[in-house]
Every structure is written in structure tokens, then in C-alpha cells.
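Practice problem: predict the structure.
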Amino acid sequence: MKYPFDGDFDRSKNYLISGKDLVSWKAAYLADRVVPGRGIEVTGTPQGRIIHAAPGVEATICTLGSILTDPDNAGQQRIAPGFISGGGSTIDLVFANFLPADGDYYYIEVTWTGAVEDDVLIPGGTMDAAEIKKGVSVPDDHTFTKAAATGKFHIPLGIWNNNALENASCGNVGVSMCPNEPRFWRI
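Answer:
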């Protein structure tokens, strides 16, 4: 099944996203991107969500998933700002004043200190820092162990190709450690 993305809506149709389809990333991508507002109606049914795009729909800004014109820096871009929360902190994420190029990867780099108790790495820990970065790839994550409880892991935001941020999702980010593997989700 081809899922409609920004600009791909047939304005005369309704789109039903069933519960099982919401499990897949592409369906979640669409469900997160479509926000009720001017010209967009979202209604729940026992089978899923019905999304109707009416004529004149404007693009929805996707927190941590859209690249926009930077109003403070002519000719430059910015990622729609948001925040990351977990490990006892919430950090605002802003990435502005850049020009995207095909093949640029965008990701959040999180510095985390794992919780060690009785010489055992346990679930939890603290988020020490987080920032949005870009590069030619997303770096490998640190392997968290009781001896190396502090390190960095990375949350992909997308790759810039053909004037669009591909493989992007929407929303602020929640993080946790369980116990040696980072977990993240959109909130």
C-alpha cells in the first residue's frame, strides 16, 4: 500500500489508517504529520483514524521533522525546533542557519550516563546533553556496560534528498535506557 505524504493527498478522498497499519513506520509517519487544523479533519473510528484533506490545505509543520526557511538568516534553513526528555532532564533542540545538501543525515546526539548499582548496569540513568547534528552518516552508538556507563547514542531524524527530509518522523522525543540499550519514541 502506498501511503500519501505531504502534497500527495487526493483532496476528494478520505484516508483510513487502521490500527495494524499504524504499527508500521510509514503509517505512523503519516498519522504524526497530519494535524487537525484549517482544511484537515481527523476523526476516530473503531477501525482507525480517518483523515480528510480539503482544498486549500497548508503544509503542517512537523516538530523535529521538517526543514524550514530560517526567518533570522536569509537563504538558510532550520529544523522545526522541539525538545528531548528523559533521564531527569528536558533539553530544547534547535538547529538553524544551515543549507541542506543531498545525502546529509540529521540526527540527535545524546550523551547519557547509565545507572550502575552493586556493580550492575541497571535501567535508567541521566541525560547529560543532547544536540541536533548533521553528517555523512549517523554515527554508531556507544555500547553501554557497567565499566563504560557513559557514552553517546544517536536518534535519526532523516536524510536530505531531492529537496526533502526523507525517513523523518514527527514530534518531540522521549528517551530512556533499558538497561544497556537506549530506547526512544516520539511524544
